[in-house]
């Protein structure tokens, strides 16, 4: 299969190449795509080097699938051109996520929503993906009324520039800033821009994308998203109120049986998920599962995942695997 990776030289793009290799996706030809300033550079994949091309050249090379991770502007401009040429696009930007004519997919949750006619498929936001994977079995069993989530997000979610800012600060080097404030020894309660309602775009992504992926607008979500000086993954403190009564042991058992979810939850041994353990793993880790004693039918938990993997590259490659399994590529 010919696979184009648009934004191949970025953080998520490089992770995409790693995940395609690890999961043995049947790539016979890689088409790395990047902006004009990277055209002609070489990318190593499966022991071979592949020349970076621009988007127009990539379309002419007729890949079976194009995985985009190059920002919303590039996706808005180029995804429709790939799709018109009959190339299926899996898009990691926010450009198409809330477009009612596009599917927003976490394969384990709503892979069945995809049809052969879907030519642009949106990959959700990282912080939403790891949360809905855990919410899905709980909603099916207990019906979720309301979710209150606070995130602790890794600098890798911002990109290379933010990782460099953190590393520079650690070494006392002054350099380009990805954030308006220092991130080392700090916490920034702003991810993306503020909207008129006082929430950030990242927070509203968690609200709106959750409803769309779970195919249930009745689920209430309120979010506070925060950047912390961490690299391995995003963490989330999640409070979930159900319509129906639940049992903690049964709920834990449900999550233990959920594909893609690993329960790490043994307070007696100080066992709980942490970004340093989730780093470079494809699964979503959940722990600190405990009853909210202030309110009936409500549970608290802690969810951690590598935002560049299940939160981005792995989920996109899983969508490609789903399409390939159906012979739709
Ligand atoms: C972040 N959610 O962590 C973004 C990345 N898509 O900033």
Automatic annotation (TrEMBL):
GO terms for molecular function: aspartate-semialdehyde dehydrogenase activity; NAD binding; NADP binding; protein dimerization activity. The keyword Mitochondrion does not apply. It comes from Chitinophaga polysaccharea. Pfam families: Semialdhyde_dh, Semialdhyde_dhC. This is Aspartate-semialdehyde dehydrogenase. Phosphate binds at residue 97. Its EC number is 1.2.1.11. Pathway: Amino-acid biosynthesis; L-methionine biosynthesis via de novo pathway; L-homoserine from L-aspartate: step 2/3; Amino-acid biosynthesis; L-lysine biosynthesis via DAP pathway; (S)-tetrahydrodipicolinate from L-aspartate: step 2/4; Amino-acid biosynthesis; L-threonine biosynthesis; L-threonine from L-aspartate: step 2/5. Belongs to the aspartate-semialdehyde dehydrogenase family. NADP(+) binds at residues 9-12, 37-38, 307. The keyword Phosphoprotein does not apply. Substrate binds at residues 153, 227.
């Amino acid at each position: 299969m010919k696979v184009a990776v648009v934004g191949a030289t970025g953080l998520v793009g490089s992770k995409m190449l790693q995940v395609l290799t690890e999961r043995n996706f049947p790539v016979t030809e890689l088409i790395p795509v990047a902006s004009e300033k990277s055209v002609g550079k070489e990318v190593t994949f499966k022991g071979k080097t592949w020349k970076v091309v621009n988007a127009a050249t990539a379309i002419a090379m007729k890949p079976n699938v194009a995985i985009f991770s190059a920002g919303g502007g590039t996706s808005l401009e180029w995804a429709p051109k790939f799709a018109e040429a009959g190339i299926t696009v899996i898009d990691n930007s926010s450009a198409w996520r809330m477009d009612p004519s596009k599917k927003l997919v976490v394969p384990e949750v709503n892979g069945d929503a995809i049809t052969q006619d879907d030519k642009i498929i949106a990959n959700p936001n990282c912080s939403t993906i790891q949360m809905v994977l855990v919410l899905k079995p709980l909603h099916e069993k207990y019906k979720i009324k309301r979710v209150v989530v606070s995130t602790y997000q890794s600098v890798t979610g911002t990109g290379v520039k933010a990782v460099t800012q953190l590393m520079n600060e650690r070494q006392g080097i002054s350099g380009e800033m990805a954030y308006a404030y220092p991130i080392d020894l700090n916490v920034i309660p702003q991810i993306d821009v503020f909207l008129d309602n006082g929430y950030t775009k990242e927070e509203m992504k968690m609200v709106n994308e959750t409803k769309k992926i779970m195919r249930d607008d009745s689920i209430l979500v309120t979010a506070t998203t925060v950047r912390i000086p961490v690299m391995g993954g995003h963490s989330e403190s999640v409070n979930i109120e159900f319509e129906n009564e639940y049992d903690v042991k049964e709920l834990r058992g449900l999550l233990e049986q959920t594909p893609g979810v690993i329960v790490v939850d043994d307070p007696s041994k100080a066992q709980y998920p942490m970004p340093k353990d989730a780093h470079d793993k494809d699964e979503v880790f959940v722990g600190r599962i405990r009853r909210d004693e202030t309110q009936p039918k409500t549970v608290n938990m802690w969810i951690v995942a590598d935002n560049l993997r299940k939160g981005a590259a792995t989920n996109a490659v899983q969508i490609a695997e789903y399409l390939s399994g159906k012979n739709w590529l």
